[in-house]
Design goal:
The complex is a heterodimer of chains A (about 350) and B (about 200). By secondary structure, chain A is mainly alpha-helical. Chain A has 12 helices and no strands. The mean pLDDT of chain B is about 90. Classes of the chains: A mainly alpha (about 350), B alpha+beta (about 200). At the A-B interface, helix 4 and helix 5 of A face strand 2, helix 2 and helix 3 of B.
């Protein structure tokens, strides 16, 4: 089974690498991006992988902080997946840069008013914290508590920084409201917990308590969307935004209904495989949310009316190169996860 | 810079002069004129809003640049150091005036996108994968000349000078005609003012 997964992941990674080499040669013209829609699938993927990684880190930090030894094996595996997600996120960010080989300039420019600087530093910190955890030096007691607190802070800062990216943008409808930060936080924790459930289901460690936690976040996830929908209805001039939030709320409710059916199932084995399916569904919902978040902010013209009267809404279609790089990053994430978990089991 | 909206006829001379001065690749215009409409038929009117980079006092692009590639000179001109730019485009997202362009590719305007000899010469200074913008023709200012758009404007709708000097022509025009900045509510404090002289 592992060999098939590793081979498939390696093929996807190789395909992504080839696509990236094509992009490196022709520049970002290989993407469907343009000056009006400047961040696309790569940044959507970056937000998605970052959200999962940070959400999982929160779970790992809580398990370590409260010495929940029952979940330690799962936390170690989750750390491997979180680390892999961070690497995938880094690759997506790298792929999006016009001059990728200059990326480490961010470390030396020290412009801390830039959200991207914070993003870069917190990403590196989260990678480092995962490596420390995977190396097994965290242990228990004060050291574990200190690691957990730092980890929790780093993961939460990493999540919240993503709400700053579009701060200057206006006219973003139901996303342009005070619920954005809460939405980003809940989506990240929801996605992270779904990924933990997926890891648990695949490794035979599925538990009803994990599903119950996912259920809680599935109930919580649409709340900011409902709140923001009300905010948009009462404040926004463009009422079309309300329909967009409705689609997301309906998707969340569908997942909630499926999850309730899974939790109601008594046999944990069946619940395990069903939980994996629900987890995948949640991950899809989180990706759609990230895709919408990035797209929504760029959909409307930058200039207000009437100055943008004759401007068409910018269209963006990711090219095959972008899809291949994104799928390749996912493949690498899977490959790294399987390999690191394999190494951890071997070491044990 | 002060732009007189009553004098501007939307002829795009400034856009062409800017392009000729900088030799910008296709689809890159440092200086553009927004055309818009006000009112309703039969009293509808076509209006023009020339828009160079606003060289804001508090530029959002400067804040978000993670690589320190955007700099603000002492004279207030906001520049991009193409040798430092990592091409993340955070500045494009942050700029509320659409003043920045990413060099997706460096192409000429003419069939086949082959550059003319003049374009080929000018294109050398552009680096694909970086962000570019209006620099108020800093190279001309160093020689004591006016920006190309100001010098070219046939309606003499543009004025250039030191906003910090209350005796300068631009300061007097702003005071006289109650000059306003574009989207002042954003708090960026642009250095480009519009008057209806």
């Amino acid at each position: 089974m592992n060999l098939i997964v590793v081979t498939a992941a390696a093929i996807l990674t190789a395909a992504g690498l080839i696509a990236y080499l094509v992009q490196l040669r022709s520049g970002l013209t290989a993407t469907g991006l343009h000056d009006r829609f400047t961040w696309g699938l790569y940044i959507q993927g970056f937000f998605f992988f970052s959200a999962l990684a940070a959400g999982m880190l929160v779970f790992i930090a809580l398990v370590t902080l409260f010495s929940a030894s029952r979940f330690w094996p799962l936390a170690r595996m989750s750390s491997a997946v979180s680390f892999s997600c961070l690497i995938a996120a880094g690759i997506m960010l790298w792929a999006d840069l016009g001059k990728p080989f200059r990326v480490f300039r961010i470390l030396f420019s020290n412009n801390f008013s830039s959200p991207m600087t914070w993003d870069f530093y917190t990403l590196l910190l989260c990678v480092l914290l995962n490596l420390v955890y995977l190396s097994g030096v965290v242990g228990t007691g004060l050291r574990a508590a200190a690691w957990s607190v730092i980890c929790l802070a780093a993961a939460l800062v990493f999540i919240m920084v993503h709400t700053l990216f579009f701060l200057s943008r206006e006219g973003a409808g139901f996303r342009s409201q005070p619920f954005l930060a809460l939405d980003t936080l809940v989506q990240s924790l929801w996605g992270g917990l779904a990924a933990v459930n997926l890891v648990a289901a695949v490794s035979g460690l599925a538990e009803k308590s994990l599903l119950a936690a996912l259920l809680v976040f599935t109930v919580a996830a649409p709340m900011p969307l409902i709140g923001s929908s009300i905010a948009a209805a009462t404040g926004a001039k463009d009422k079309t935004h309300q329909n967009q939030s409705k689609k997301f709320i309906l998707l969340h409710l569908f997942i909630l209904a499926v999850l309730l059916a899974v939790v109601a199932e008594r046999k944990i084995d069946l619940a395990g495989s069903a939980a994996a399916a629900v987890a995948v569904l949640v991950l899809l919902a989180v990706f759609l949310e990230k895709a919408h978040l990035v797209g929504r902010y760029q959909h409307n013209p930058t200039l207000p009316l009437p100055f943008s009267l004759f401007e068409e809404a910018p269209a963006y279609r990711p090219t095959y190169v972008e899809w291949m790089v994104a799928v390749g990053s996912g493949g690498l994430c899977l490959l790294l996860s399987v390999v690191i978990i394999g190494i951890l089991e071997h070491v044990r | 810079m002060v732009i007189d909206l009553l004098r501007c006829v939307g002829c795009n001379s400034c856009t062409v002069a800017c392009r000729a001065e900088h030799g910008t690749p296709a689809n890159v215009q440092f200086n553009k004129i927004k055309k818009y409409e006000i009112g309703k038929y039969p009293t509808a009117k076509m209006k023009f809003l020339p828009m160079p980079c606003m060289h804001c006092q508090y530029p959002p692009c400067l804040k978000v640049c993670p690589a320190g590639a955007t700099i603000k000179k002492e004279d207030g001109i906001v520049l991009v150091d193409e040798n430092k730019c990592i091409g993340c485009r955070a500045c494009i997202v942050a700029c509320p005036y659409e003043s920045r362009h990413f060099l997706w590719d460096i192409k000429g305007y003419y069939p086949g996108n082959l550059p003319t000899p003049y374009e080929a010469l000018k294109h050398k200074k552009f680096d694909r994968g970086t962000v570019v913008k209006c620099n108020f023709c800093a190279h001309r200012l160093e020689k004591g000349r006016l920006p190309a758009c100001v010098e070219t404007c046939p309606a003499q709708a543009r004025y250039f000078g030191d906003l910090d000097d209350p005796e300068s022509e631009v300061s007097r025009l702003i005071a006289l005609h109650r000059g306003t900045a574009f989207r002042p509510e954003l708090g960026t404090e642009p250095s480009v003012f519009y008057i209806k002289g």
